[in-house]
Amino acid sequence: xxxxxxxxxxxxxxxxxxxxxxxxxxxxxxxxxxxxxxxxxxxxxxxxxxxxxxxxxxxxxxxxxxxxxxxxxxxxxxxxxxxxxxxxxxxxxxxxxxxxxxxxxxxxxxxxxxxxxxxxxxxxxxxxxxxxxxxxxxxxxxxxxxxxxxxxxxxxxxxxxxxxxxxxxxxxxxxxxxxxxxxxxxxxxxxxxxxxxxxxxxxxxxxxxxxxxxxxxxxxxxxxxxxxxxxxxxxxxxxxxxxxxxxxxxxxxx
Length: 254
Known about the structure:
three-stranded antiparallel sheet, 10 helices, rod-shaped
């Protein structure tokens, strides 16, 4: 937009101050920042340094407001932007609405350093998408995918602590399932299958000590079964040979 007002392009920083002199806009911004309704704005006074010319360098984009109760507020562009981000993070507004507002402000006021707020809300959106997908994967029984997606939830996200808790819960449930499956296979003497189940679980559980202990236990059991089988085979040969020898001597005596 190329319209000018008092020598400023609409994209120039002083336009924020000028726009905020509209009490309806100021009221909306103030309510967003403080998170509650304001009856009315008695007056809106802007920071006096804004009357510098366009070539006068950067200025603070502060607006000082007072409501009918006599409470004064200092509304600054970055503060407003961060409030929009926090409202999205707390589920008080949707991503599209919040992003479009920030993006519009960023384009209108390119010198207001709103890129950080836009980057932050984009990161939060990706984080919340990861959390939602992780919940779906967990409900679908896909432990590895669920843990991976829960791990993509960033600390800035209000879902972060819940994601960390779910990682531990999913990992514990998955480990219990793996141990039970491995034991069931071992009980049916399928030691190779049991070992494969345990080894494949490392993608989710890593170097888990309980898995390592069970693997060692099953390897020992497999070796014991193998030795027992050899002994039974040897004993069978011995019994057969004994019977043959006895039969030979019986025949000689006859």
